[in-house]
Amino acid sequence: MGRVRLKNRLFYRISKKQHLPLFSGEGGLFVSGRWHQKGTPCVYTSQSLACAFCETLVHIADSKASKSLFSYGTLSVPEDLIHTPKNLPRNWNTIPHDPCTEVFGTNLIKQKIAVAYIFPSVIVPEELNALIDPFHPQFKHCTISPPRDLEIDPRLSKMFSSKKS
Q1: Residue 162, Cβ neighbours under 10 Å: how many?
Q2: Distances, alpha carbon 75 to alpha carbons 23, 137, 156, in Å
Q3: For residue 50, which of 134, 129, 155 has the smallest C-alpha distance?
Q4: How many CB atoms lie within 10 A of CB 119?
Q5: d(Cα 73, Cα 12) in Å, to the nearest integer?
Q6: Nearest residue to 47 (alpha-carbon basis) of 17, 75, 6, 69
Q7: Residues 76-86, mean pLDDT to the nearest whole number
Q8: pTM higher than 0.90 for the full model?
Q9: Are 108 and 76 in contact (CB under 8 A)?
Q10: Which value, to the nearest 10 degrees, does the dihedral of the CA atoms of residues 120, 123, 124, 125 take?
Q11: Higher pLDDT residue, 146 or 63?
Q12: Under a CB-based contact definition with an 8 Å cutoff, are residues 13 and 23 in contact?
């Protein structure tokens, strides 16, 4: 008889359509992030679509809001494949981020402790994000939804149209 699985937890991912598929982990190969070093395949997600949207907003000031620009999808992860680190690095929430957080997250992924690693959101600390390891051997037990268009309220367009200098 197979393993008994606990319930699943849903994680949300938003990305520009040009970066599909949503859960490939390719982005981590080209740039570093708060919880990973460049060259580490991984996917950043949130436990709510609203938090995922906030996390996306801080990185897209150079884009124009468009109904057709962004997609979102979900990843359902069994609870026994999720890990919440007990002790985060000091200064885990500084802006810009401290490079020690990149090492911390990269080490977790290399150790293959879990498919999903839970961290508080820097933007909304009461919300949770997850760093996903799409190359973990147990990732096959996760369920990916098809991507859907993300409808962005046109009142937010002024946030997208301002250029970063």
Answers
A1: 9
A2: 8, 16, 26
A3: 129
A4: 21
A5: 6
A6: 75
A7: 97
A8: no
A9: no
A10: 40
A11: 146
A12: yes
